[in-house]
Amino acid sequence: MKPVFIIAFILFAIQVSFSQNQFNVILEDTVSHVASNILESNYSYIVLSGTSNENQIRSFALTKVDFDGNIIEKNIFGTDSVEYWEGFKHSLKRNNNNFYLPGTIKSTDNKSGIFIFISNEEISSNQMYMYDYDTTWKAAFNVICSQDAYYITGQHYNYEVDYAQLFILKSDLSGNKLWKQFYGNIYESGDQVILTLDNHIIVGGVTNQSFSSGSDWYIIKTDTAGNLVWENNFGFGSRDDGAVSALAETPDSCILACGGYPGIQTMTDTYYDGCIRKINKYGELVWEKMYRNYSYYKTLKLIISEFQFSKIHILENNDILALGSSLSYYPKNRGVLMKLNPEGKIKWHKYYYPTALAYKNRQYRNGRTLQHPNRCLKC
Hints:
The protein has strands at about 5, 10-15, 20-25, 35-40, 45-50, 60-65, 70-75, 85, 95, 100-105, 110-120, 125-135, 140-145, 150-160, 165-170, 175-185, 190-195, 200-210, 215-220, 230-235, 245-250, 255-265, 270-280, 285-290, 295, 300-305, 305-315, 320-325, 335-340, 345-350.
């Protein structure tokens, strides 16, 4: 496969060693898409996005893009009456020659269920496993596959404690549910999940243990039977740190987690720095680093930082690639790619913009009706 690092639905492919653009394209369509994932297969890139079908029912789409950035094919998955919501970022994953993703269905009679969608590289053959379809609020945000099981995480209302909590659901590879466990105290969510080399599950997300103290990153480690090994939260304390955006295991059996850090918080807004934390195998903080990119608000005549990481990748020499987004002259977004040494010190960083002429006259905003439903803070 090509040695590339993929950035966004305004699509870039970049050689990691020199940070050189391979291509830079906008994937045009006649309907709105909110892209959350991209995966490289043997023959193309597969882009996962939220969209609407011909009946204006919330669905998800898979788009095949060749290695020059040209759309080959697009398939929309949904029904005439039930909404289909794909998982969060990094939830589209590969297993041999197939790929899989989690999601949530929502019906008009207030029922919901979580699913795993599995397809081949040609997106021509697919199957779906469904779990816990009932009137209890729930949402699946991510999944990981081991040699013999799927582990789905997200948020699920727990009537025993009368709160929504982080959950892990284990299923065998044939779609049979084996167990489901809840974790946390109050309003936790599982956004990211990885399987470690010692066969443990790491889930990263967010906790809102107190509305007065803001949200923190929430990370847990369990064994494959669902037994909790450790849990910990990381953050400023009195500000909204948001959720863990990505996880990666280091060669020394530690965990890297990335996201944002609330550098400035006012009565109405939070302005983030990029943040990476290294956590050892016992759940203890090894180091944390904050990274700032400044943006100028013309209307307010303010210079502030608005920057968050969304992906981390560890190279063979233990250097770190960190991908994020920042604001240039407000409200223009830009992609940011940093190369760091194993201690988080910056070696270089680059900014990326769409180069298509049409971009200059467009206002790109998130499609609110297409975004994943918010986490449950009070169901």
